[in-house]
D-alanyl-D-alanine carboxypeptidase/D-alanyl-D-alanine-endopeptidase
Amino acid sequence: MRRTSASLVAGALVAALAWASSPSSPAVALDPAAGVADLTQDINKILSDSRLTIARAGVVVKSAGTGEELYATDAGKLLTPASNTKLFTSAAAVETLGLDYRFPTTVLSTGRKIGSALTGDLVLRGTGDPTMLAEDYDALAAKVAATGIKVVAGKLVADDTWFDSQRLGNDWSWDDETAYYAAPISALTASPDRDYDAGSVIVSVAADGDKVKVSTTPETGYLKIVNRATVGSETDVLIERQHNSRTVVITGTVKDPYQEWVAVDDATSYVSSLFRGALAKHGVKVLGPTVTGAAPQGAAELAEHESMTLGELLVPFLKLSNNIHAEILTKAMGRKVAGQGTWSAGLKVSTDFAKANGVQVINMRDGSGLSRRDGFSPGSIVQLLTAVRSKPWFKTWYEALPIAGNAERFVGGTLRSRMRNTPAANNVHAKTGSLTGVTSLSGYVTSAEGEPLIFSIMLNQYLSSSPKDIEDKIAIRLAQFSRANPTADAVQLRAEEPAAAGDLECSWLKPAQC
């Protein structure tokens, strides 16, 4: 986990102290009426932006200390949250699984070991670990070889039965199928990098003389590469996996190196190929075919790998808004509570958690917010954000949220290029959300007088480019909020650096482009 510099820590100190205080008592005793009228006027002015004329906007601001509602418009309307859905999924996951939860991946054997031969099958069993890298499967293979096994007479069995066989989420768009942010969900998966983009492979191209060289991370023969690209005067290349296949077609021209994150078609089969190759590298030959199925009762454990804790996983999950983490955690919750690693079981856990914490308007179709049928009200989001402040795990969860204007990628996350050099920088801890025609920002901010505030901003059905700057202006105004000196400096409402262009999260624009 990366850490911010001493100067950035100093900049966030006031906010951290405010949110570390008791959730039940206000940071300061203040006249609850002073300054609110000016705040209301300023937010109304920000929302009068012409881009929102035909759109829907829901905004709620609440004092975390007094419980006072400082601003509300369409607080109870059902709106599309995009990745603000992850606020509910992550909170429910920590409550249900615990910060110390780890995903184990094990290798088991059936039959007997006679000399260097195993008479039965070798079983690779997963529980959804999204942090497994090719090197981790290699380490498991090395442990198998260390037991003295050189030949497996039986099959290589991929046991992905911890989750069900539904790979893609409810209502996910078919044209997202090959995108890494909509990769298939399996109990056996692998990531190509330490962003932990499970279920995907990085495909890289580079000019090599008069030819285009193609490579993958990790190295794998699982994908069939069809390279039709040529060396040109600019890089204008398309790397795309064909629908429902392992074939990746590369077209266009290449001048400078370029890479694309591509979802595999079948995460279980992909992992099986990685593990079989790793076994061969370590001198273990499997004579039988690769099949899928459950490990039989009594299978002996040969090796195990455990993931980082859920508390640690929250950082790449929330900072980079990782969809696959959200869906894996949803199924993991279902498995723990209902014994079923399914979306329906896991979503019930998340919904029950939200309702138990006072949330009334909620419709969850997936864990990440990729579904356009997900729906929350800004009032419901603020209610959740208020309720979790009393949880023993709140500090860890709060620190895992993106922090505005902090350039460190694993600190600022999807807010790292927003609200820089404003009172909101290193102050706002909030979750972003983006789909075409949808943007949202919900979280926490400390006012100019040290008063902790909770807010949710949801903008839907606009036809312009993404109006994230409207969210930023509201968040900055909240950072300036003062009951004693209510007039804000309007010039400060504009961040020096604009929000990322387009309608997608920063993390969706691989490689990092914002």
The chain has three domains: 31-100+311-508, 104-165+267-307, 200-263. Confidence is low (pLDDT under 50) at residues 1-18, 20-30, 495-503.
